[in-house]
Design a protein that fits this description.
Oligomer: single chain
Helix content: 25-40%
CATH class of the largest domain: Alpha Beta
Distance between the termini: 76 Å
Strand order of the largest sheet: 11-16-15-14-12-13
Number of helices: 22
CATH superfamily of the largest domain: Glycoside hydrolase, family 3, N-terminal domain
Bound molecules: beta-D-glucopyranose
Largest sheet: 6 strands, mixed
Structural class: alpha/beta
CATH topology of the largest domain: TIM Barrel
């Protein structure tokens, strides 16, 4: 037996704090806290990345061996990026069986969209507007990750994102705080389930607290400067919803917010989160964000960073080792208090007890379960279902789609057509590279047509080894274009798969251009010149500028990065075995110059007529581009068509405590059964602080057979009218409102009511 392999070992220290099911968690936390030395308490506040091959021989000498010792002496509370039962069991064994008190580690991992079996990127999942499906997808991810030893995910990311230049828009739920709040809660419920101590669920983490999505100019890690109005009305609601849904942890963010790095922000972490919202879980810093406060020019040195972070409300230090090095000294010098340390430790222990880790620290370490669950049929079919629901049909002129199943010559063209890696997107640390079903493979599973495949142009020059490498876009080699054009010439229909390489979005992948990278635009235009019957399938992690395609290509399908089952989902949609119903969670711009772009903007004092024309120069607009997006928030087509009735209000007004309803009839007037997301927007005409031109306040995903009519009823009460007002209060103000109901954020179908 290897010295460090798990076997029959003394469980003495582990039994010191073994959990009794009958003692309330709070009592157990207090009892344990009493036993802990200051060093052990500080240890709980320290998180390490997986830093060595834990199942190999232990390191001798050097920095890593210190870390190893720290695990065995109770100076580490959590690890991240240790995965797989074998590895997790080994680090857990060190903490539990070698340290004095045997406090188990909480094992963190970025389960962002699936563990090994990859589901669509969160932005894509949001496009389904299907909260049950999103919750289920998170639950499946939790099932697979927990079977591999993980018990804490750094998700959901609930940052509101208005700027497509920011690469991390792929990780969130898009631009709207109402939709974002519901998706945040759904994902928290999915990860955490009904019972946190079940071995199939894990603790979730709402991140990045706060306003990281507002990084100036869409450049990652950049400064954020927004006022309280935007902070409270737009940024905070999804975090609050996650807290209300019981999320057990928060992660703060890299950015500074109005001059204060979020890691040290007392207002956010102590006043709002732990104060107003009564959050009793813990806050983890982002990777090295304590240390980065020195680069921000906010902390003098590492020790000062520790003082600022702890005072600011950061409970656990991810990868700065600053609490470990300085918390004791800071306490002795009176720069931080014993209460602050105890409070942080209490929070961390509470979550560990809730996870059932004290009862059985190896509850996530069952190799048999790992084998049975990883890539199981249930998970694979779940991600396929989610992938189909995430697809958005942006254009379908002359019903080019769905494709005929027989007798067609299809030219499949584009650098992403046979790509098995890009559909996995970014954040897929545990997935096998090249494990996605490609579009080529998906189409080949329909045998009735003849398919020719041409890459046309390469998108990248070489495949990055992983997550940390820059993507090297091909800007020199156009040699494949002629063959692609030739194959398009005699095809009945051309399917082009274009977009972004899988690692072109995500952390640190900001882009200053939002066009099709490399030579893809040229390829598209050359192919379109010989065959205009093009179905453009897009794979991308963010909104792109698609003006030329919109004007010249008859059918456009937004297929994001849909994960492991990507090609099957796309093929089923292209062939009409699944009728798409996704709606955009972010506006698609006409130009990068429009960034940030979002539907729920303010009116300004010079709005122009309908935001597009004022008949003169002096209004809020660009002289060289429209204000409106190319495809608006909430937009998406179906193979069938829907007709809406006018809105019927139950009353023209209501007062505090009351409710009115707004209803419409919706009819499926086309040939296919289909689903429609019926959306309710409200406009507040006049208030003590300026209000958006309209805001999403309700939606329903309605399933309608061809010819069928249903009535959708929205109930409107005071809570839907509340906002952070001019006096800094969250309340509804009396006045006039408009309700809009329709199929996207530009709908004109409206009715007026008042609240008094
Ligand atoms: C990211 C976080 C992530 C963490 C751990 C950071 O770089 O900003 O979102 O959870 O790394 O991987």
């Amino acid at each position: 037996m290897k010295k460090y392999a798990f076997g029959v070992l003394t469980l003495l220290s582990f039994s010191l704090v073994a959990q009794s099911k009958n003692t309330p968690v709070e009592d157990q936390v207090e009892a344990l806290l009493q036993k802990m030395t200051l060093e052990e308490k500080i240890g709980q506040m320290n998180q390490y990345n997986g830093f060595w091959n834990v199942t190999g021989p232990p390191p001798q000498g050097g920095e890593t061996s210190d870390k190893y010792q720290n695990l065995a002496t109770g100076r580490v509370g959590s690890m991240l990026n240790v995965r797989g039962v074998k590895e997790v069991r080994e680090v857990q064994r060190l903490a539990v069986e070698e340290s004095r008190l045997g406090i188990p580690l909480i094992i963190g991992f970025d389960l962002i969209h699936g563990y090994k079996t990859i589901s669509p990127i969160p932005l894509a999942e949001t496009a389904s507007w299907d909260l049950e499906a999103i919750q289920h997808s998170a639950a499946l991810g939790a099932k697979e990750a927990t079977a591999a030893g993980i018990n804490w995910t750094f998700a959901p990311m609930v940052d509101i994102t208005r700027d497509a230049r920011w690469g991390r828009v792929m990780e969130g739920a898009g631009e709207d705080p109402y939709l974002g709040s519901l998706v945040a809660a759904a994902r928290v419920r999915g990860f955490q389930g009904e019972d946190l101590s079940s071995p199939h669920t894990l603790a979730a983490c709402a991140k990045h607290f706060a306003a990281y999505g507002f990084s100036e100019a869409g450049r990652d890690y950049n400064t954020v400067d927004i006022g309280l109005n935007t902070l409270h009305n737009i940024v905070l609601p999804p975090f609050k919803a996650a807290a209300a849904a019981g999320v057990r942890t928060f992660m703060n963010s890299f950015n500074d917010l109005n001059g204060i790095p979020a890691t040290a922000d007392k207002y956010l972490q102590r006043e709002i989160l732990k104060g107003d919202w009564n959050f009793d879980g813990f806050v983890v810093s982002d990777w090295g964000s304590l240390r980065e406060m020195m680069d921000h020019g906010f902390a003098r040195d590492r020790k000062h960073a520790g003082e600022l972070a702890l005072n600011g409300g950061s409970d656990m230090d991810m990868e700065s080792y600053i609490y470990l090095d300085y918390a004791k000294e800071l306490l002795q010098e009176g720069k931080v208090t014993q209460e602050q340390i105890d409070d942080a430790v209490r929070r961390i222990l509470r979550v560990k007890f809730e996870l059932g880790l004290f009862e059985d620290p190896y509850r996530y370490c069952d190799e048999k379960r790992e084998q049975a669950v990883t890539g199981s049929e249930e998970i694979v079919s779940g991600v396929l279902d989610m992938a189909k629901k995430s697809i958005v049909l942006l254009k379908n002129q002359n019903n080019l789609l769905p494709l005929k199943k027989e007798g067609q010559k299809i030219a499949l063209i584009g650098p992403l057509a046979a790509d098995k890696n890009s559909p996995l997107g970014n954040w897929r640390i545990a997935a096998e590279n090249f494990s996605a079903v490609s579009v080529l493979e998906g189409l080949q599973s329909y045998p009735g047509n003849t398919i020719t495949h041409e890459q046309g142009v390469k998108l990248i020059n070489k495949v990055p080894a992983g997550f940390h490498e820059e993507v090297d876009i091909n800007t020199t080699d156009k040699s494949g274009i002629e063959e692609a054009v030739a194959s398009a010439k005699d095809a009945d229909v051309v399917v082009m798969v274009l977009g972004e390489y899988g690692f072109q979005s995500g952390e640190a992948r900001s882009r200053a251009n939002l066009d099709l990278p490399g030579f893809q635009q040229e390829l598209l235009e050359r192919v379109a010149a010989v065959n205009s019957n093009i179905v453009l399938v897009l794979m991308n992690g963010r909104p792109l500028v698609l003006n030329w395609a919109d004007a010249n290509v008859p059918a456009i399908v937004e297929a994001w990065q849909l994960g492991t089952q990507s090609g099957n989902a796309i093929a089923q949609v292209l062939y009409g075995d699944y009728n798409p119903s996704g709606k955009l969670p972010m506006s698609f711009p006409r130009s990068v110059g429009q960034m940030p772009l979002y539907y729920n903007h303010k009116s300004t004092g010079r709005p122009g007529a309908d935001g597009e024309d004022a008949g003169s120069v002096f209004w809020s607009h660009y002289i060289d581009e429209k204000n409106s997006p190319l495809y608006p928030f909430g937009f998406g087509l179906s193979y069938t068509s829907f007709e809406y009735s006018d809105i019927r209000l139950s009353a023209p007004q209501f007062s505090k405590g009351g409710t009115i309803t707004a209803q419409v009839d919706i009819t499926n007037t086309g040939k296919y059964n289909g689903k429609e997301v019926v959306q309710l927007y409200l406009k507040d005409h006049f208030a003590s602080a300026t209000r958006p031109v309209r805001e999403l306040k309700g939606f329903e995903l309605v399933e309608l057979k061809a010819g069928e009519t249903k009535t959708v009823v929205f109930s409107i009460d005071e809570s839907l009218l509340q906002f952070y007002n001019g006096q800094g209060q969250w309340m509804a103000e009396p006045g006039a409102f408009t309700a809009f109901i329709g199929s996207d954020s530009t709908t004109k179908r409206s009715a007026e009511f008042s609240f008094n």
